[in-house]
Amino acid sequence: MSGAIGLRLCVCIALLLPAFLPAGTTSSILDMTPPISRLALADLRDTFEEVHSGHRHEAIDILEPRRTPVHAVVSGTIRKLFLSNPGGNTIYQFDDVGVYCYYYAHLDGYAEGLREGMRVERGDIIGYVGSTGNADARTPHLHFAIFELGPERLWWKGKAVNPYPGLVDAVKRGN
Length: 175
Ligand SMILES: [Zn+2]
Fold this sequence. Notes:
Largest sheet: 7 strands, antiparallel
Bound molecules: zinc ion
Distance between the termini: 55 Å
CATH architecture: Distorted Sandwich
């Protein structure tokens, strides 16, 4: 009898958790530090809604010289290192609670020793700015996106969230 009640309680908590976390104060976006050192507000432009090569951009581009270090914006786990035609060398990083996925693309390369499943701390160097994938070789940049993961937490599946306001706050906090 008590076993049945215990089981029912577990199911209730499991159902509530995914709905509760994104709305709570645990949002890792609020803890972000800029992916590039010494970033200024003038370096940021909100191009989330722009249409790039037929698709809504749903990301922010930060123009930097090739090989500029890219830092993890939050602490979490390197979920996937993926070479894609449009994105080139990319990193999918999950935050600690698995609510958001942070995506870094067009990288010239990864930080030495970076591997899938590895834990990284906010501020760790994870890669270097480049123009791999469909980026113009003359304008190396970091393509940075944030995805809200569903309850199944699949790295390739998420709802794009505009990173611009979070990046502006991160720069203003002076990190
Ligand atoms: Zn882009």
